[in-house]
Amino acid sequence: MILISWQRLLAVIVKEFIQMRRDRVTFAMIIMIPLIQLMLFGFAINTNPKYLPTAVLAADQSDFTRTIVRSLENTEYFRINPKITTEKAAHKALALGRTQFIVSIPPNFTRDLLRGERPQILLEADATDPVATGSAIAAIRSLAQQNIFSSLLTSNLQFTQYYAAKSPIELVVHPAYNPENITQYNIVPGLLGVVLTMTMVVITSMCMTRERERGTMENLLATPVRPLEVIIGKIAPYIIVGYIQLVLILLASRFIFQVPMQGSVWLLVLVSLPFIAANLSVGLTFSSLATNQLQAAQLAMFFFLPSLLLSGFMFPFYGMPQWAQTLGSILPLTHFLRIVRGIVLKGNGFSLVWHDLWQILTFMVVAVGVGVKRYRKTLD
Amino acid sequence: MDSNKPLAIDVKNLKKSFNGKPAVRDVSLSVRTGEIFGFLGPNGSGKTTTIRMLCGLLTPDSGSGTCLGKDIIRESQAIKLEVGYMAQRFGLYDDLSIEENLSFIARLYGVSNRKEVVKSTIENLGLTKRAKQLAGTLSGGWKQRLALSAALLHKPKLLLLDEPTAGVDPKARRDFWGKIHKLATHEGITTLVSTHYMDEAERCHRLAYIADGKILVRGTDQEIIQSSNLTTWQVRGENLSSLMEKLQKLPGVDQTVLFGNLLHVSGKNADLLEKNIAPFRSSYQWQKVEATLEDVFISLVPNNNFDNHTD
Lengths: 380, 311
Fold this sequence. Notes:
CATH topology of the largest domain in chain B: Rossmann fold
CATH architecture of the largest domain in chain B: 3-Layer(aba) Sandwich
CATH class of the largest domain in chain B: Alpha Beta
Oligomer: heterodimer
Order of helices and strands of chain A: HHEHEHEHEHHEHHHHHHHH
Strand order of the largest sheet of chain A: 2-1-3-4-5
Number of strands of chain A: 5
CATH superfamily of the largest domain in chain B: P-loop containing nucleotide triphosphate hydrolases
Number of helices of chain B: 11
């Protein structure tokens, strides 16, 4: 007995290819998803991040301190931001995640150095993401072991004698916010944003499309219910779902992974609302673009993938090239991650959270506008 | 029908295109209150689009008119409150129970005494024992009955039914039409119903036939048959299909339709038709009959040209 008829098998294969070609969105995804992955993984992602934003607070200015700054830059791990000059501004930037390091050079550094007293240099690192800072800290440590001033002082015999055996400076590294470099501290709060993005976008894009695919939309629209009532009515239950997820993750974070909660839980609950709403609006827009549930799921993937890779969740944000950072800055997850890590690990309050919150709000307003406009169009 | 009654539907020159393709070219309809109005036409002729424009689902590109005295463009929200609409596809939720579906629809319309209305609706349907059953598990006939009951929950004055009996068995179809007539007689509910079935068309008070987005003919079934000027001969005998092929080539024979053991031969020019069929009269039983609605409707679209269809 012949189990497989080649003719019948071919018929099914040909039919599948025809259907694949007809479904434009699916076809586009088949091409686009590998391309996007190639671009992101190939160019954007860097597990050995370089040129990390660094603030230098030099209380002493001399050829020696300038040599330190130049040596830091020469390691390629540090990109010094000349705009940050005060301690207050530097620590705010660190809390916001805008700068990764603060290098402090104390007063009388040059005098102490020349006296052979091995002056200290303080490196404060935002250690919430140990992966992002690890290589840079290693680089500065090796720098501190060398005699970086040798070219400056070859003529000074006394100096050369002082530091023949040991390096001329003492480096003190202070890994702020996550002194033990525990990866979970970074991943677990970040997961909150990732899970919310995934569920909110996927669910809304599917639940609207399902209504149209099954033919129940027509019946619904023939009733007096208004489009905005349908939209809000469909979104509201998922906001509650989003909050259930939030509570679950926060409980797990606290009691399973022992992540400390430095800031206010209530602030976190409050600022999650615009983030959830922004993602739901993206889902709504997708549901008006997709003609079936498969397409809706693919479009959701299309949004989720860059969110995951470019937001700084999986790979250090500042390790990416500029174009990827710009792209990542548009995504609400990027800002939400900074907010969550800021509140949970750094104890940031509303005034600091606001720096990222307004960007999520802007995204939300644009997404709601596009979503509602596109959605209304599909009715006619 | 009392022609002095106000019009339930009164629309003029409705037009609607989708992506540049005209679906409805020019439709004017007037349906009297309490009337059952049949809407016929081939697939893709614009029936569904017209019905959707009447209940506010679609905005016409041009044209104007009223539904229950309200402007179809400006007052579609008010119209929706008084219209019961049944789409071609089952429009209720497969994954909600019968009771939950009815309750949902009743809420949307703001039906007062919602629980009692839903309960009595389920009782009238005879589904009390199956109230918790998911609507998706019902048979086609039951789905149709449930959808009609859902469309009637808010006591509408006008029912817009888009091919409500497609795919439903004859018994269920008969019950359905019994119900529509009862609603018209006892409650004065107006119904606009699209259908492909001729027996259903004959149960309507008045009819309109639409093809390619335009209404070709309207009136009672008798008016339509008379205005067609169609002379029809009914032929009985052996091997009718070969006879049909021969007759089709003759001048004066406009159309031949085979109904099982009967052949209908029709033509607009009665004399020419009679002259040309004369040679065949001896070998078959010929009888002059009144044209049926089906003969008339088929004659309205002479060359069933597929390219003209938008569907």
